[in-house]
TrEMBL record, chains A, B:
This is AcrR family transcriptional regulator. Keywords: DNA-binding, Transcription, Transcription regulation. The keyword Transferase does not apply. Residues 23-83 form the HTH tetR-type domain. InterPro entries: Homeodomain-like_sf, HTH-type_TetR-like_transc_reg, HTH_TetR, Tet_transcr_reg_TetR-rel_C_sf, TetR_C. PANTHER family: HTH-TYPE TRANSCRIPTIONAL REGULATOR RUTR (PTHR30055), TETR-FAMILY TRANSCRIPTIONAL REGULATOR (PTHR30055:SF148). Gene3D superfamilies: Homeodomain-like, Tetracycline Repressor, domain 2. The keyword Nucleotide-binding does not apply. Residues 1-21 are annotated as: Disordered. Pfam families: TetR_C_11, TetR_N. Residues 46-65 bind DNA.
């Protein structure tokens, strides 16, 4: 007589394929959460629903993600990774323009609006603020920083410029209009962000 | 026999000075709220307390400000107006640097931190979002816009630059670091915001 299984996942695991590796399970969950958040936002995101969709136990989910916000942020980061990827084969101004347009499009989806809500909630919830930085913003910042550093090494950005500051003057400026919508995010606005920074706004001598 | 007064303010109105004019009462309330918000934030801000401090009825307060958030924002706007004033007698780069340093200092007070919380709450509360823009951000934007437009008319900013965008690339960039604090707001950061924009970050030809 065999001992009964204690694996809470057993009932939903596809039969005949054996146990999925943890990293595969994790990737599957993130993909499912990412799709859900992009399409619907986070209002309908529950551990119960994700457990059902991804075929894992709620215990497993809680082990990896301490809160709904953390789960949403991790899923969202992976869901937008390809859309927001940089292209180091084109010149940096063209790459930034293109990426900023993609970014604005993503931010107009239910997922993007959910991200703004999480930024909002994180002003009042320190745990969520830590999760936001750890699972979303610091990773996005790093990707932008790497692209800008490459451009600086290529001579497309002047030596001595602190490229960290550019992240705030490009994407930060967009977040400003999204979070406090006195003015709209338009294609012209996105292009002007890049042009102002590269060309400078002082009169040409 | 005289009819009893029905003025709820009568008990607290200074005797012998007669009825205060509405605009004076309003200015007194805003001054009291502004001091309170700057010193303490909004956790302890209640209509009851403001009514007591400013010597007006709660009915009067509710007539002018529909919510605690609206009252806080209106008071805060007036409290920081002088600190955040521009100085059109100096060149625009020096003025912006100075103003951005003052802005960062104000944002580090309990009042500034309360403002970030209100931005946060306004992501989930449309009424508060409308009040935020009406009573705070649109007014601040207008002041910045006017200063930048003057600089453009003076030839300090190139013709053709949309100065609306600069508001997001200066103060918006600071809000970005305050709301999502992956990187700190330092004096060097504030100066770099101005320098990057005016000088441009492309290599000099």
């Amino acid at each position: 007589m065999t001992t009964p299984t204690t694996d809470a996942d057993a009932g939903t695991r596809p039969r005949g394929r054996g146990r999925r590796r943890a990293d595969e399970v994790r990737a599957d969950v993130l993909a499912a959460v990412g799709r859900l958040v992009l399409d619907e936002g986070i209002a309908g995101l529950t551990f119960e629903r994700v457990a059902r969709i991804a075929g894992v136990s709620k215990t497993t989910l809680y082990k990896w993600w301490p809160s709904r916000g953390a789960l949403a942020l991790d899923g969202y980061f992976h869901a937008v990774e390809r859309t927001l990827a940089f292209d180091a084969t084109v010149d940096v101004r063209a790459d930034l323009r293109h990426q900023l347009h993609s970014f604005a499009e993503v931010m107009a989806t239910p997922g993007g609006r959910a991200l703004l809500q999480l930024i909002g909630e994180s002003q009042l919830d320190e745990n969520l603020a830590v999760a936001y930085r750890a699972l979303y913003s610091s990773g996005r910042r790093l990707l932008a920083h790497d692209r800008l550093t490459l451009a600086q090494q290529n001579g497309e950005i002047r030596a001595g410029v602190d490229v960290h500051v550019l992240v705030d003057q490009l994407w930060g400026a967009v977040y400003h209009r999204l979070l406090i919508p006195d003015e709209p995010v338009t294609p012209e606005f996105l292009d002007a962000l890049v042009d102002n920074l590269f060309d400078g706004i002082a009169p040409k001598k």
